[in-house]
Design the sequence.
């Protein structure tokens, strides 16, 4: 069983420091702007710094420590070679304003990655520029806005999202100025067509949908939904957070989606970096391609070029061309997996998820609401546990840490009470899935007082988050 | 299949679940849209992939094989080896957003330290733990300003990059706000105080300045600017080069309300403009309006010191459309790189580094103006970038230099028509006298001297 190391590691500025005289003044800085005292940054030896961060790393849980089944986050193993190649000097040490002829290698990779993503999603054009999934949504919403403006439909100001949507969906739509309308799911856990029909109008700009949705349920009515949205004159947006489940099985483009964003750090196995960098490429149907950000990468004969000549483009959503090193890692991953590998990703990620779901469902402690068949993730409710023993989802999550396992996403989607949202991914062994299920069942059978006091084996016991919000200590100056 | 261990026991697992074939797991997908195959190549082995990409990578010319002296933001900097070693601790780079603080104390403490060093350098009270890049930080800063005072007029310098202007325009697309550009002084290259005074009004939400500005010039009239801005109760957003803050006054000392910067300079490679680090710091009174993730110090039930994400009620996973920003995945690992880099250098190293950058910039400047084809444009002091005017066609010059794998400055006339034949040069600590000599002799060869 995995155990964290535990250190009383001081804050960086409390480490023993070298005594050095530092004079920041230099005549080339105009007198009025000259710094008189050096910044209050400690002066340390390299080995102190390395040991400090090494110790911190040992108090952190990553995929290589064990299973990390955060729902909708697709925490799969990140192949080492992807990381190595992205760190080759040929890729890291090139300047974004270098002449195209001196960066043909990177341009080729970006171009080919776009082609592969087009094939995987059934879309017609891609931009690799967005830095994250939510950034892709933001770009997608800018494109929705630009499209309706180009059609003279400025009054289309509503974006519809299901109540199971990721929080980023409504937040992105709002950022671009849309009013967000949330619609309730039906008893199957999917979009309620009758409610959708009533909600669609000549004010609707788009429907944002995740498919499979955050319950792990495939929206089987997707073709009807697409027709309804298009008949209403609106666009259909695909949140690609859950694409892992359908790689090589079905494509958003064929389902009728007009715009998609992908999360390269999820589906294409680039590391999540403790929160980023990721990458959120956006794909669109042909009629919307003119709105994509500049520059677009084009192939002219054997040459790759950056093309800025798109007068209808929305412009830029960030500096330069995208989180390039993340794109390179995803490209390497795609080359390793190939056509059959990707299909296998979908099949086994769905198999693993349903395998765990079956075992948990039978236990009686974890209730599976809505439709039985799930895709790559599933959501169970700890409500029976709460009723029987007063144990809540958060208690189960914290107790999992004592078993050396990372908890799933909890309390999401909001429509499931005491939710555990579990996404095992395809990269775990059957033994690891069994161990995880056994841990969940064992916790259900434990003395509830022990569970409610968990964790006890982590570097810190249960952390008081409310105190942090009430007593803001946000830098070492505040201590 | 690589990385998919249960491939080999698929049938066994299906049997245990009472299923006959894996297709049953996909029966919820309408048949008309099911596909059997993707038109992609077959998977390759690791050694085949390495060989293939090695071939592709040879079509790139990295620094210093290709020697660029372009300013405008990105430049190559040395990254100490220890930075990479720490980033590659997989407990860091394969983890995700620290939703479970008990399992994430390492990254959480590091991000608390990151917030602390950014606050020290900028003179602000708080920093978030990263946005995407400096341009998106500007977008978020302006959105925050509008949230705070409800005004809709945004003043920005005319001399910022076109990319940044475009990003800003998109970030306020939904806010019905107006962007007004302030002229720079044609002689000094600094912000025109007269134009600022003319354009600021009671509807002005914020004024953005860059320091050093896009031409590399130190804006030293900051006290005057701050007075004008704050007299109108507007906010002052300052965009800085983090590197310059070791030797220049932090914006907190001259009235900056929000400070943004590009963290790439400290510890993240150029990566062809790849993932960066949007730094965002501000005064504590704006804390509930900040976009992005913030780490706070607290304690556990035993009373031991601990860290966790805080003020999450600002964020999208709680507040949905009412969140301060849609950001979720950010640039945390690059924030860690910046923290480690700053820790390795300390105040001593940071000051030395800034001075070295200025020294190299002056060497480059002197070498260029000693040639007959360059003359100064602005009279003010600069950091590590500067503008020169050429007597020659600058596009022709760069085309000819390209044959020797060199780029001189970045031509400015497309974005600034009045700066015809002007180039923005930039240099860092990574260049030595030989590199400068290489540029000078290459330029001489272009003009057959």
Sequence:
């Amino acid at each position: 069983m995995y155990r964290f190391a535990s250190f009383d590691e001081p804050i960086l500025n409390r480490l023993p420091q070298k005594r050095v005289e530092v004079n920041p003044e230099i005549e080339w800085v105009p007198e009025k702007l000259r710094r008189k005292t050096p910044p209050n940054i400690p002066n340390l030896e390299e080995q102190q710094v390395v040991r400090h961060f090494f110790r911190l790393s040992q108090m952190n849980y990553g995929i290589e420590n064990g299973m990390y089944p955060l729902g909708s986050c697709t925490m799969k193993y990140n192949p080492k070679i992807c990381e190595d190649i992205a760190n080759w000097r040929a890729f890291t040490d090139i300047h974004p304003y270098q002449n195209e002829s001196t960066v043909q290698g990177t341009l080729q990779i970006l171009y080919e990655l776009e082609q592969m993503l087009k094939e995987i999603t059934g879309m017609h054009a891609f931009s690799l520029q967005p830095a994250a999934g939510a950034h892709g949504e933001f770009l997608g919403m800018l494109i929705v806005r630009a499209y309706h403006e180009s059609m003279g439909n400025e009054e289309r100001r509503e974006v519809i999202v299901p109540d199971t949507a990721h929080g980023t969906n409504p937040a992105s739509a709002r950022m671009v100025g849309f009013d967000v309308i949330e619609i309730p799911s039906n008893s199957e856990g999917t979009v309620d067509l009758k409610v959708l029909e009533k909600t669609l109008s000549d004010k609707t700009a788009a429907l944002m949908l995740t498919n499979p949705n955050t319950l792990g349920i495939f929206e089987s009515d997707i073709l009807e939904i697409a027709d309804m949205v298009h008949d209403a004159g609106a666009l259909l947006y695909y949140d690609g957070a859950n694409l892992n489940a359908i790689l090589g099985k079905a494509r958003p483009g064929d389902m009728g989606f007009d715009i998609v964003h992908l999360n390269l750090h999820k589906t294409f196995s680039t590391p999540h970096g403790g929160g980023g960098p990721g990458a959120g490429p956006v794909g669109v149907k042909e009629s919307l391609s003119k709105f994509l950000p500049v520059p677009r990468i084009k192939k002219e004969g054997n040459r790759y070029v950056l093309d800025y000549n798109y007068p209808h483009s929305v412009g830029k959503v960030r500096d330069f061309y995208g989180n390039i090193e993340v794109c390179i890692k995803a490209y390497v991953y795609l080359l390793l997996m190939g056509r059959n590998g990707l299909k296998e990703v979908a099949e086994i990620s769905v198999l693993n998820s349903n395998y765990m779901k079956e075992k948990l469902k039978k236990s009686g402690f974890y209730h599976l609401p809505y439709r039985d068949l799930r895709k790559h993730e599933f959501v169970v409710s700890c409500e029976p546990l709460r009723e029987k023993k007063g144990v809540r989802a958060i208690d189960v999550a914290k107790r999992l840490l004592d078993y050396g396992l990372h908890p799933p996403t909890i309390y999401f989607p909001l429509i499931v009470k005491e939710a555990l949202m579990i996404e095992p991914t395809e990269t775990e062994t059957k033994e690891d899935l069994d161990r995880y299920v056994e841990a969940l069942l064992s916790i259900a059978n434990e003395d509830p007082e022990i569970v409610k006091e968990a964790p006890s084996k982590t570097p810190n016991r249960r952390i008081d988050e409310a105190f942090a919000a009430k007593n803001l200590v946000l830098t070492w100056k505040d201590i | 299949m690589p990385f998919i261990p249960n491939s080999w026991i698929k049938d066994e697992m299906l049997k245990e679940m009472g299923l006959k074939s894996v297709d049953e797991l996909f029966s919820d997908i309408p048949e008309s849209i099911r596909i059997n195959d993707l038109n992609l190549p077959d998977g390759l082995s690791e050694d085949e992939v390495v060989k293939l990409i090695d071939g592709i990578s040879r079509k790139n010319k990295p620094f210093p094989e290709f020697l660029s002296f372009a300013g405008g933001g990105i430049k190559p900097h040395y990254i100490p080896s220890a930075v990479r070693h720490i980033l590659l601790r997989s407990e860091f780079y394969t983890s995700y957003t620290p939703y479970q603080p008990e399992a994430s104390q390492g990254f959480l403490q590091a991000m608390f330290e990151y917030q602390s060093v950014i606050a020290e350098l900028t003179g602000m009270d708080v920093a978030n733990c990263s946005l995407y890049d400096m341009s998106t930080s500007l977008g978020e800063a302006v959105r925050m300003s509008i949230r705070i005072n409800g005004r809709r007029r945004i003043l920005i310098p005319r001399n910022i990059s076109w990319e940044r202007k475009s990003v800003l325009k998109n970030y306020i697309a939904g806010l019905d706000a107006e962007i007004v550009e302030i002229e720079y002084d044609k002689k000094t290259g600094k912000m025109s105080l007269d134009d600022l005074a003319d354009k600021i009004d009671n509807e002005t939400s914020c004024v953005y300045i860059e320091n050093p500005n896009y031409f590399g010039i130190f804006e030293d009239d900051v006290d005057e600017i701050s007075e004008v801005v704050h007299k109108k109760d507007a906010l002052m957003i300052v965009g800085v080069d983090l590197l310059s803050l070791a030797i220049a006054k932090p914006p907190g000392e001259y009235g900056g309300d929000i400070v943004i910067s590009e963290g790439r300079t400290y510890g993240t490679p150029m990566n062809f403009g790849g993932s960066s680090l949007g730094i965002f710091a501000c005064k504590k009174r704006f804390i509930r309006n900040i976009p992005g993730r913030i780490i706070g110090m607290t304690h556990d039930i035993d009373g031991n010191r601990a860290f966790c994400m805080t003020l999450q009620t600002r964020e999208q996973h709680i507040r949905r459309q009412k969140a301060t920003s849609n950001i979720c995945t950010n640039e945390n690992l690059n924030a860690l790189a910046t923290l480690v880099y700053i820790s390795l250098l300390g105040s001593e190293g940071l000051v030395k580094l800034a001075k070295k950058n200025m020294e190299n910039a002056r060497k480059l400047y002197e070498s260029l103006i000693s040639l007959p084809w360059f003359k100064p444009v602005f009279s003010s002091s600069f950091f590590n970038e500067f503008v020169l005017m050429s007597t020659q066609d600058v596009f022709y010059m760069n085309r000819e230099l390209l044959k020797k794998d060199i780029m001189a400055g970045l031509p400015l006339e497309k974005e600034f028509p009045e700066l015809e034949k002007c180039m923005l040069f930039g240099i860092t600590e990574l260049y030595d006298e030989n590199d400068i000599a290489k540029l000078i002799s290459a330029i001489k060869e272009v003009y057959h001297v």
